[in-house]
Design brief:
Layout: H1 6-11, H2 18-21, H3 29-32, E1 58-60, E2 76-79, E3 85-87, E4 92-100, E5 103-110, E6 118-123, E7 125-127, E8 134-135, E9 140-144, E10 155-162, E11 165-167, H4 175-178
Length: 195
Amino acid sequence: MALAALPALALAAPPAPSAARAGAVIAPASVRAGVPPGPSDPVPALARAWPVGLHPRVLRGWEPPATDYGPGHRGVDLAAEPGAPVRAVAAGRVSFAGRVAGRGVVAVELAGTGEPPLRTTYEPVRPSVAKGDVLRAADQVGTVEAVGGHCPVGCVHWGLLRGRSYLDPLSLLPPWLLRRAPSRLLPVLGVPLPR
């Protein structure tokens, strides 16, 4: 094995389950058993990428409202410069791409997440996709629009819903995507040190 290949091996993310590597999405056990998921069911950590950047700063976290119409924050705001690409966090189908209240919005129904399916939303986004488009994880859905008001700096509001119930979108991210610690090179046994 060439020494030049060692950093790439050490920095790679842990392997996904074999079905996920093939592009399939594994539904939660309750969905596979034929039980429709409810809003309190756990969200599967099926995301394979952040919507913007490699590990964006969370400007404002998810704050669930106490009632349907109560105050709260129904998603997370991620720091992003206008013009930055916005990506689908997981495989799915575009259910909406257009303007709502003057802002660009893209919604993606996530594959294999039951009925009703989980749905991610991204705004303000200039869509590069159309309703019905099938996406893979990390496919670009648009670019961040430069509109003011929601965040003090450029941001993308990332939401997650099942039916009409809002959920924490960060729960889609597996632990290896949530970690903030820097990557570390580990010794590789059996490879002689360079002289």
